[in-house]
Every structure is written in structure tokens, then in C-alpha cells.
Automatic annotation (TrEMBL):
Pfam families with a match to the protein in the record: Ribonuc_L-PSP
Alphabetized InterPro entries for the sequence: RutC-like_sf (IPR035959), YjgF/YER057c/UK114 (IPR006175), YjgH-like (IPR038743)
Annotated Gene Ontology cellular component terms: cytosol
Organism from which the protein derives: Pollutimonas subterranea
Name of the protein described by the UniProt record: Enamine deaminase RidA (YjgF/YER057c/UK114 family)
GO molecular function: deaminase activity
Length: 139
């Protein structure tokens, strides 16, 4: 059986245990982070879209930090948006606050019809801090 090196952010372990998934798993020099939404501490959606996107990034950054990493080590991003035709521009006003400087990670944006009551979700793959420090800036 595969042994998973699971990363839990502070104060959110019960949420993941209740929903039966790992927030992030380290494997072969990479950190695979589950989709993060703008959930409040009780798991409910933040109703304001801009605040929800910020909270999703804050939740993502808490996991990256728990792994000893940061968004600077992110190499691939997937975002899911409910009704992207009407929400994309609003969401993309928030993204640069968290995205950092070029070169940017790769991005796949997916329009969906349902996200368990949320309007935005972000999942990433990052190099683990050890692997990122040894690559000398090369992919």
C-alpha cells in the first residue's frame, strides 16, 4: 500500500477528515494540493465573490505554508468557476494579488455548473521546497 505524506493546515484537519480527503500530499519532489474554496472556518461558503476568492487563496496558502512552501513554488494551477461568463472578470481582479511575478505557473480554467455552493475553487501542483531549491531556476 502506498504511504502518503499528507500535509494538514492548522485548524482544518476535522474538515478534511469529515470529507475524507487529504488537503495535500507530497510525492516525488512535488506537492499536490486538493482544490481549495473560500470556506469559512465552519465550512460554509463566503457569500461575497471577491471575499470568497481571497479566502480560497488564503486557504491554499495555509496549506502551502504548512508544507514549508509558498505560491512561488507553484508550477501548475487549475481553477474552477461557476458561470465564468459572468464571474471571470471579477475573479481575475483578485488573482494578481496572489499570483506573484513572472514567470507565472501554467493555468487551466474550467467552467462548471456546481461547486457545492461555492463559485470558485483552485488546486495546484508545486515543487516541494527541497526540489525547488535544487533546480537552479530550471523547470
Amino acid at each position: 500500500m502506498l504511504s502518503r505524506d499528507v500535509v494538514f493546515p492548522a485548524g482544518r484537519r476535522a474538515l478534511y477528515e469529515r470529507n475524507r480527503y487529504s488537503p495535500a500530499v507530497r510525492s516525488n519532489g512535488f506537492l499536490f494540493v486538493s482544490g481549495q474554496v473560500g470556506s469559512r472556518e465552519d465550512g460554509s461558503p463566503e457569500p461575497d465573490l471577491v471575499a470568497q476568492v481571497r479566502l480560497a487563496f488564503d486557504n491554499l496558502n495555509a496549506i502551502l505554508e504548512a508544507a514549508g512552501s509558498s505560491f512561488d513554488n507553484v508550477i501548475d494551477v487549475t481553477v474552477f468557476m461557476v458561470d465564468p461568463k459572468s464571474t471571470f472578470e471579477t475573479i481575475w481582479t483578485v488573482v494578481p494579488e496572489y499570483w506573484g511575478d513572472a514567470p507565472y505557473p501554467t493555468l487551466t480554467a474550467v467552467g462548471v455548473t456546481w461547486l457545492y455552493g461555492f463559485d470558485f475553487e483552485i488546486k495546484v501542483i508545486a515543487k516541494s521546497p527541497e526540489a525547488a531549491s535544487t533546480d537552479n531556476g530550471n523547470p
